[in-house]
Design brief:
Layout (H helix, E strand, L loop, with lengths): L6 H4 L1 E10 L9 H13 L9 H4 L10 E12 L2 E8 L3 H19 L4 E4 L6 H11 L20 E3 H6 L9 H7 L14 H6 L4 H22 L10 E3 L2
Parallel strand pairs: 1-4, 3-6, 4-5
Antiparallel strand pairs: 1-2, 2-3
Helix pairs in contact: 7-9
Length: 241
């Protein structure tokens, strides 16, 4: 059982997103975007040796211009449990609207400032969500709109940044941190590279949701370890519809 109340961690929403290419095949993209995909890969030298544009399309979900969000998993501490839920849908706009509504309700319920936490969130999750909200004409929540804010005013936590301690030379995955802290691996079924395949070929959104929620629970435990606190157990997790 989670031992005691901790208002600091109870003000954090832990999150993870799952993204896929906007279309199952490169050939299905509109011609202008096909050309822009080629331009992006070429200019940024993102093509692997002997890789075609079609083969590289499997990674399109990494880029907000060519991908979409199919699931946002969130978790938060509530008294003696860790609450988990996910917003998932084929309709990306609904996913974003539901997530935004959740944040508003969470802030209203807590009645105080909150923070978001993600692994590599400042490079990926946070800007990706904000960009997709812009493109879907969903109002960006104030907590994600950081234009003009000073670094210490930004309420966004990043466990990768916490682990680096100011060293910006290397990347450490959530799976790696979980392993060295003695936590269960979140990649027990699939990993991020397989999400697009599971979605477009099998349309198994439920499987992706489970994978996303596992990542969120692992993220929260990694955060606790980085703060020198004891991680929670699986029996402390409550899944919310």
């Amino acid at each position: 059982m989670i031992a005691s109340r901790d208002t600091e961690k109870e003000n954090i929403v832990f999150l993870d997103i799952e993204t896929v290419p906007q279309k199952p095949d490169f050939a299905e993209m509109a011609e202008p975007l096909q050309k822009l995909w080629e331009e992006k890969l070429t200019r940024q030298k993102l093509l692997k040796e002997n890789e075609t544009l079609t083969e590289a399309w499997g990674r399109a979900g990494l880029y907000a211009e060519f991908g979409k969000i199919i699931c946002i998993g969130v978790g938060f501490f509530e008294k003696d449990s860790f609450q988990l839920r996910a917003f998932s849908n084929d309709n990306e706009k609904k996913v974003l609207q539901d997530f935004s509504a959740f944040l508003s309700q969470f802030i209203e319920f807590r009645n105080r400032a909150i923070q978001l936490c993600a692994h590599n969130g400042k490079e990926f999750d946070y800007p990706y969500i904000a960009r997709r909200m812009l493109l879907n004409k969903v109002k960006i929540p104030a907590i994600l709109d950081n234009g003009g804010k000073k670094p210490w005013e930004v309420p966004l936590l990043d466990t990768l940044e916490m682990w680096k301690f100011g060293d910006y030379k290397a990347y450490s995955s959530l799976n790696l941190l979980a392993t060295i802290f003695g936590l269960p691996s979140p990649k027990q079924d699939i990993d991020g590279s397989k999400v697009g395949e599971v979605y477009w070929q099998n349309h198994d959104l439920e499987r992706i949701v489970k994978y996303c929620c596992n990542d969120v629970a692992t993220l929260a435990n990694v955060y606790l370890c980085l703060k020198g606190r004891e991680p929670f157990n699986e029996q402390d997790i409550v899944y919310k519809p």
